[in-house]
């Protein structure tokens, strides 16, 4: 199990926060997601077959800029 913190930019509403959380938690291999709008961070626990690059791409494709 791996844990990562991904810094993002562009999240403005709780609805966006909820949608991103739902999208990521439904990915195969993702066991926990916490989207923190105040700190602009996504904390995520995951294992194979997903990896950090996959997660960052999904967040980017959802319309958010990756800052780290």
Please give a structural write-up.
- The chain is of the alpha+beta class and 68 residues long.
- The chain has helices at residues 14-25, 52-61, and strands spanning 2-9, 30-36, 41-46, 65-66.
- It has a single domain, classed as Alpha-Beta Plaits (2-Layer Sandwich), CATH 3.30.70.100.
- β2 and β3 (41-46) form a beta hairpin.
- The longest helix is centred in the N-terminal third of the chain and has 12 residues, at 14-25.
- The chain starts with a strand and ends with a strand.
- This is HMA domain-containing protein.
- InterPro entries: HMA_dom, HMA_dom_sf.
- Residues 2-67 form the HMA domain.
What's the CATH C level?
Alpha Beta
Shape: globular
Order of strands, main sheet, comes to 2-3-1-4
β-strand number: 4
Q: What is the annotated CATH architecture? A: 2-Layer Sandwich
Low-confidence stretches: none
Secondary-structure class: alpha+beta
Distance between the termini: 21 Å
Order of helices and strands: EHEEHE
Question: How many distinct helices?
Answer: 2
Which percent band covers the strand fraction?
25-35%
Pfam family, one: HMA
InterPro entries: HMA_dom, HMA_dom_sf
Domain HMA: 2-67
GO molecular function: metal ion binding
Strand-helix topology:
Blueprint: E1 2-9, H1 14-25, E2 30-36, E3 41-46, H2 52-61, E4 65-66
Antiparallel strand pairs: 1-3, 1-4, 2-3
List keywords for this structure.
34% strand; four-stranded antiparallel sheet; 32% helix; 68 residues; Alpha-Beta Plaits
């Amino acid at each position: 199990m791996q844990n990562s913190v991904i810094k993002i930019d562009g999240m403005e509403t709780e609805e966006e926060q909820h949608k991103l959380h739902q999208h990521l938690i439904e990915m195969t291999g993702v066991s926990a997601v916490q989207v923190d709008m105040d700190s602009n961070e996504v904390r995520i626990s995951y294992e194979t077959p997903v990896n950090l690059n996959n997660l960052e791409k999904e967040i980017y494709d959802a319309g958010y800029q990756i800052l780290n």
